[in-house]
Amino acid sequence: MDNKSNMKKIGLMMSLYMSLVMSVFMTITGVCTGMLPNVIKGNVPPQALIGSIISGFIISFVISMLIGIIVPMHKVTQGATKNMKPGLGKKCIETLLSDLIYTPLISILMVAFAYIQNQQKGISGPPYIVMLIPSLIACFIVGYILIFIFQPMFMRSLMKKYGPGAGPEGGPHIVKSENRE
After folding, report:
1. Is the pTM here over 0.70, yes or no?
2. Which stretches of 71-87 are DSSP H helices?
């Protein structure tokens, strides 16, 4: 594989990995932020919580993958931080940019989905904006932490497997040395 196709593969795999991680944790965070108080009060059956987590994960994963495919995150973050020195400050800004792109869109759509579901089932609840604000804040914080931790781990792993110097089928490129005596 050439370098360009390896980089495309890295981008696609990065989108997949980050979408999985973000979708699992963001769905749990969002659903629990919005529904758990109602489950505890007895207004919503506990089974609804599980159903919302499963359907929320599917929707969140699809949205995350679409964002990951459409938005060239590496180019966006690198372009915005190109004049910064490598280090913690640069990593924090890159994480913030990723979080600002993913979290609001996913949260707005997920809360809208939950709100519409509640309306269709006749479950009385707070207005949409009242549901959105706590979920958006909680998901923004959780998203930032997840991106900060997992994005560099996944990138290192993928670069090792598919990056420059990787062998033709992925994995490390092995160079045999000749012993000359």
Report:
1. yes
2. 73-80
